[in-house]
């Protein structure tokens, strides 16, 4: 039996925090990615420019730097606003940015840029003839989007979404640098106390491996489902 010197329950709770961060970040990334992809494909120059700037900057800066910039930068900004409100209106308040919220927001913001390019490529891969056929059948623009564009787009997007998700899961380890008690941080603290790093980090590696392995199976089934009726 693996003896974790009493740190097992806390590391297990840290694993739950890691999984929560991963799934909530994915939700944020998918939403931002879809919005940015639509903006990239729109004819509106401002929306297109904002989306291009977002995907270019985020994909060009290391994740760790962004994590530190957004977490500490946001706190400094909030402090500056509270100071200004106090000086101007004599109203005192203080907001402490939560590590969990900061971690989810930052990872979602980072991977939203990658998702945007995935969705944009998938939208462009949809056969325009099918869209024209939908219009010819009398479908409205929304019906064409919901019944033809999105299902066809998802078939092309699933592999890219899967890759982004697997990288996102590993990126959740970065939240430990901003103080969130995820399983990496708790394992590091336990390893420092007991002086047995392999005893704690190997189980952590297996948790990540299990999570990505289950994800691979789920993504494979999604790919089969959205590829129904097509040659693979």
The count of β-strands is 0
Largest sheet report: none
Which structural category do the helix and sheet elements fall into? Answer: mainly alpha
Shape: flat
Number of helices: 8
Report the average pLDDT across residues. Answer: 89
How many whole angstroms does the radius of gyration measure? 22 Å
Portion in strands: under 5%
Order of helices and strands: HHHHHHHH
- What's the helical proportion of residues? over 70%
The low-confidence parts are none
- N-to-C terminal Cα separation, in Å? 45 Å
How does this model look, in words?
This protein is mainly alpha-helical. The protein is built from 8 helices and no strands. The longest helix is centred in the N-terminal third of the chain and has 34 residues, at 8-41. The mean pLDDT is 89.
Summarize, please.
This protein has eight helices and no strands. 80% of the residues lie in helices and 0% in strands.
What tags apply to this protein structure?
flat, mainly alpha, about 230 residues, 8 helices
Please render the helix and strand layout as text.
Blueprint: H1 8-41, H2 45-60, H3 63-89, H4 99-125, H5 128-136, H6 141-171, H7 183-194, H8 197-226
Helix pairs in contact: 1-2, 1-4, 1-7, 2-4, 3-4, 4-6, 5-6, 6-8, 7-8
